Amino acid sequence: MVLLQQIARYIDPTAIGIVFGGTLLTTAFRATRADIGRAFSSLSLLGRADPNADAAAARVSVSRIRELAEVRSLACVDRVETAQRFLLRAARELSDARGAADFVRWASADIEARRQRHQGVIGVWRAIAETAPAMGMIGTIIGLVQMFAHMEDPAAIGPAMAVAMLTTLYGVILSSAVAGPIAGRLETLSDAELAWQTAACRQLELLAREELDSLPPAIVRPNLRTVL
C-alpha cells in the first residue's frame, strides 16, 4: 500500500496530457500519417529483429539462386524457396530482366524507397525525442504560472507545483528513456538490413552480367511480363 502511494505521487493526469498529448500532436504535424503508423508498428521489431541471422539467411538464399542459375538459367531463379520477401521479389525481377541494367535499376529504386521509409519511421521517433523536453518545459511554465496565481491559497500551490515538476520529469523520460533509444535501435536495424540487401543485390547483379550481358546482340531474352 505504501509503495502504491509513492508511485501515485508521480502520476498526474494534467502533466501526462501536456507532455504526451502535446508531443503526439506536434509529431503529427511534422510527420505523415503513414510514417506515424509504421513508427508504432515498428515497435514489434525491437525485440525479435536479428540482423545477423537475416544476413546469414540472405547468403544462403543467394547461393540457392546461383545454383539454380548454373543448373538451369536465370529464367528459373524465381522458383527459389526463401522466407525473405525481399529476395523473392529480387529473384522474380532477376528472372524477368533482359539485362543486368534492368535488375540494377529495380534494385536501386527498391532499396532507396526502403531507405526513405526507414528514415521516415526513425524521423518520427527522433521528433518525439526532440519535442518531449520542450513539452515538459511548457508544462513547467504552466505549473509555475498557476502556482504564482494562487499564492493566497496554500491548497492550490501543491498541485500546480506537481504539474511543474512532473511535466519536466515526463519530458525527460519520454525523450531519453523511450523515444531516443527506440530511434537509435531502429536506425541500427535499418543500416544492417539495407547492408545485406545491397550486398545480395550486388551478387545477383553479377549473375545477371555473367548470363544476360554475355549473350550475343542478336539474342535477346523476352521479358516474360510483357509476353504474358
TrEMBL record:
Please give the start and end residues of each transmembrane region: 124-149, 155-179
Q: Does the keyword Transmembrane apply?
A: yes
MotA/TolQ/ExbB proton channel domain: residues covered: 83-194
Q: How does it sit in the membrane?
A: Multi-pass membrane protein
Cite the entry's keywords alphabetically: Cell membrane, Flagellar rotation, Membrane, Transmembrane, Transmembrane helix, Transport
Give GO cellular component annotations, separated by semicolons.
plasma membrane
Q: Where in the cell is it found?
A: Cell membrane
Q: Which GO terms describe its biological process?
A: bacterial-type flagellum-dependent swarming motility; chemotaxis
Q: Which domain of life is it from?
A: Bacteria
Family named by the database record: Belongs to the MotA family.
Name recorded for this polypeptide: Chemotaxis protein MotA
**Species annotation:** Rhizorhabdus histidinilytica
